[in-house]
From TrEMBL:
Source organism per UniProt: Texcoconibacillus texcoconensis
Signal sequence residues: none
Protein name: Acetoin utilization protein AcuA
Domain of life the protein comes from: Bacteria
Lineage: Bacteria, Bacillati, Bacillota, Bacilli, Bacillales
Keyword Transferase: yes
Domain N-acetyltransferase: 25-189
This enzyme's EC code(s): 2.3.1.-
Keywords: Acyltransferase, Transferase
């Protein structure tokens, strides 16, 4: 499908410091900015910057950033599921995964993650997609947040709810391996019934097994 993208931005002047949340941004826009040193959830900031730059080469990718002047302090990235994941088996051109959402530790407490999702979903093109995220407790920064697994899960779900994502049942073994793990999804208003049926099929691959 054609990947239409409409840029949106949000200026949070009431925050200290002030932030700009914007996107989807292009590779040309992205390379103008630096990564905050606290963005280390997946890899070191310089390596994560290179990884995001490469992802922006993909036509379906949608990168939303939060920045403090010229420094990226948070981001969310949407793209097709990795080919090794079950979610790619449906081969749906209108299914995107929230591959990562991260906010630098020293910038937490300002609601940046929620605003990243608000800006992402402000694009009307998102009504053409099924958006999913797979949440695993071992990816969560429990120590940095000072929260229990269940406290973190509750906050994470509330953040995702801002973007319209809700919990969906699945028999995926990794998600079923711990009760805190979950699949969340948002089905756009213009997604066709056939795509929804296929999404439901891959959510439950083993329903006929005994």
């Amino acid at each position: 499908m054609e990947h239409n993208k409409t840029y949106h931005s949000l200026e949070l002047n009431s925050k200290t410091p002030p932030f700009i949340v914007e996107g989807p941004i292009t590779k040309e826009q992205f390379v103008r900015y630096e990564m905050d040193e606290g963005l280390i959830a997946f890899r070191q900031p310089d390596k994560q910057r290179e990884a995001l730059k490469n992802v922006l080469e993909l036509p379906e990718s949608r990168l939303i950033i939060a920045r403090d002047h010229q420094t990226i302090v948070g981001y969310s990235i949407f793209l097709y599921p990795d080919e090794i994941e079950r979610w790619s088996e449906a081969n749906l051109s209108n299914l995107l995964e929230l591959g990562a959402i991260e906010v630098s530790a020293k910038y937490r407490g300002y609601g940046i993650a929620k605003h990243l999702l608000k800006v992402a979903m402000a694009d009307d093109a998102m009504e053409d997609y099924i958006i999913i995220t797979t949440e695993y407790y071992w990816h969560w920064d429990l120590r940095g947040a000072g929260l229990s697994i269940w406290e973190y899960r509750d906050i994470m779900q509330k953040v995702m709810n801002v973007g319209g994502l809700e919990c969906y049942a699945t028999d995926d073994p990794e998600i079923c391996s711990h009760p805190a793990n979950c699949l969340m999804a948002r089905i756009g208003e213009r997604v066709d019934a056939e795509s929804i049926h296929e999404f439901n099929r891959i959510r439950f691959k083993y329903k006929y097994m005994f």
